[in-house]
Description:
Elements: H1 24-34, H2 52-55, E1 57-64, E2 73-82, E3 88-96, E4 101-111, E5 119-125, E6 128-137, E7 144-148, E8 155-159, H3 166-178, E9 187-188
Amino acid sequence: xxxxxxxxxxxxxxxxxxxxxxxxxxxxxxxxxxxxxxxxxxxxxxxxxxxxxxxxxxxxxxxxxxxxxxxxxxxxxxxxxxxxxxxxxxxxxxxxxxxxxxxxxxxxxxxxxxxxxxxxxxxxxxxxxxxxxxxxxxxxxxxxxxxxxxxxxxxxxxxxxxxxxxxxxxxxxxxxxxxxxxxxxxxxxxxx
Length: 192
């Protein structure tokens, strides 16, 4: 969850700009990446006392580890909403300067254990799910979050605004580094 709740795909769906959002090749790669990947990395603990209602809405991707499904994208956002089936709707969006177009991916997420724990599984491709683990969160105002996937190669720093206070960003990076994530490889996302 960008983390933006992870990788995305919507086969054959046409966005408002008249372009398909992703190709079948990308879908196949994502399916292989996500199959059976709803676990938690060692020593990573999802936040407790999580309140989904406060988490819903738009988030800006501040930093991420590189992955093919987001490579080259800027102005990446994730928007979360409630689904009728009790799950969470996910809309990831980013701009590809190379293709001069917006890329979108729609998905769905569900709590793995309980709705009071920041541990969800997310799917952008049929029955295949990947972990979405919130391991740090602004508990008071839900203004920033540190999110990882099923292993240490997936990491996102999210905020409610396109810019983040450097002290907060440094603290989130320090926590991630202490947990074994390669923060030196983080890509800072441009929102201009």
